[in-house]
Amino acid sequence: MASNAGLDAFSRPVAYADDNARTSFLQNVALWTLGGLGIAGVSAVLMMMAVMAVPALQHRYVMLGILLGSFFLAQNVASNMVFGGQKVAGFVFGMVSEGVAMGYLLLAAVTVGARVYGEGFEALTILAQAGGLTGLTVLSMTVYLWAAPKNLSMIGGALSVMFVPMLVLMAISFVFPIGGVFGILISGLFVVVSGAGLLYNLNQVIHTMRTDMHVEGAYTIALGMLVLFWNLVVLLMKLTDRR
Q: How far is residue 83's CA from residue 236's CA, in Å, rounded to a whole number?
């Protein structure tokens, strides 16, 4: 506590902040996160429309290049901007980059949904299911982490090794799908890893970031939610296709 005595009331670690500073931080994080997800959603819809209109974007290797490039820009370039001196620009750039990748996912999910559940709003069933599961996951994790920080160092260590390969495999397995039970198991593993990543990120944001780092916190959470959402959609598509 003594080491934080000279810090401004709204720029100290969340774990040591007073109730007002902590509440303000979490409210700002929530608003920025929702805004980021909205930006990613609009970008995804525009990209989906572009893919439908431009046949060249449907080529598998073009798709793979765009997916890998979008993941790299969001997870590395934009992230460095957010945690550097260009927070807002990096935040918007990263969410747009994620949205570009998500455009392919939306198109695939709507296509499968239309075939299985029917046209119209029914075609959005898979997306709605994945969105609901992602939201419930974030809520339950927040409740679990709220009282005190958890020791998730083992998860953090594992993620440092597994996360980047998982992103690459996510893109490759989306463009070149793995069918059957093995494909479902791989998708299930990706859901578990991305869920663990989101839990670790939430723990870091809620308990270790400074209370003036709401943009960084929101970006961290939004990225984790989008990765989990991606893997849930892919898993649900595989399960739906087996009906």
A: 34
Q: Which residues contact 82 (CB under 8 A, 6 or more apart)?
A: 90, 91, 94, 215, 216, 219
Q: What is the pLDDT of residue 5?
A: 41
Count Cα atoms within 13 angstroms, Cβ side, for 81: 16
Which residues share a beta bridge with 210? 13
Task: Give residue-wise pLDDT tens across range 63-99.
Answer: 999 999 999 999 999 999 999 989 999 999 999 999 9
Q: Both tokens of residue 119? A: 């046209």
199, 152 in Cβ contact below 8 A?
yes
Global pTM reads: 0.90
Q: Going by C-beta distance under 8 Å and a sequence separation of 6 or more, which residues neighbour residue 114?
A: 122, 123
3-state secondary structure 138-173: HHHHHHHHHCCCCCCHHHHHHHHHHHHHHHHHHHHH
Q: Cα-flanking dihedrals φ and ψ of residue 210, to 5°?
A: -75, 155
Task: Phi first, then psi: give them for residue 13, nearest 5 degrees.
Answer: -55, 140
Compute the mean pLDDT over every residue in the chain, rounded to the nearest whole number: 89
Pair 151, 209: CB distance under 8 Å? no
The C-alpha angle 95, 65, 224, rounded to 5 degrees, equals 35
